[in-house]
Amino acid sequence: MQPMSMPGSLVEIPFDNRRIQIEYQWLRPERAQRPLVVFLHEGLGSVSMWRDFPRDFCEAGDYCGLVFSRYGYGRSTPRPHGEKWRPDFMHRQAREALPALFDALEIGPGRAHGTPWLLGHSDGGSIALIHAASFPEAVAGITVLAPHIVVEDLSVRSIAATRQAYLETDLRERLARHHADVDSAFWGWNDIWLDPEFRRWDLRPLLSGIQCPVLAVQGEDDEYGTMAQIEGIHRYAPQTTLLKLARCGHSPHRDQKDPLTLAAVRHINAYTSNLK
């Protein structure tokens, strides 16, 4: 399957005392009166790394969609090679960069595009959780795929293995198709996840602040996280619905696309059935 063919546009936002450009792409903008789903990519993701899933998902639910590449990824402004992510990098994306993007694109309560639903994968799922907890009135609901709420030994081992693959296989070449500066994207993510200081990273204290409906999805064969991640979300945010998928690794939208789509569309529609 090929990446989405349409190139993303660029919008400038303020972040970290500078101006940066963010790559983004609207999906089915003619359906702007329908729920807006914003897709938050994984730690090595981008607009194109999602491939066709966001478009297919929005067509299945008759939604409008927004896909974007975070700072340092895709065609967005690359991270300078000397700049290191800090342990709070996902908090800053959720509390600073994402609100700035929503401001620039007129997304939110009372704005042109209304209150969004967030669908995040891996790091993007964690960012969705932080954003929903930090701005509870600004999110209609969230779906998180293989999210992280704590750092597990399994995650660290798999990320260390990914580092070796980047150095020794064609992984770098394959990722380079999706990023303007592939080394910036890879090492920013890999270095912080393998930093001993990051082992103390923990989202559990803020999860009780989430007020919106949550669908938390985990594959039984996920090489980057265990069921403890989504079960922990349910423990602190009991309105969470859990979906555990057999024969599924770290990417439910690829490994089990159809059952995921069915469950996530039902999740959104349960709260938006009055919309046309």
UniProtKB/TrEMBL annotation:
Keywords: Hydrolase. The keyword Hydrolase applies. It is an enzyme of class 3 (hydrolase). GO terms for molecular function: hydrolase activity. InterPro entries: AB_hydrolase_1, AB_hydrolase_fold. Gene3D superfamilies: alpha/beta hydrolase. This is HYDROLASE. It comes from Cupriavidus taiwanensis (strain DSM 17343 / BCRC 17206 / CCUG 44338 / CIP 107171 / LMG 19424 / R1). Its EC number is 3.-.-.-.
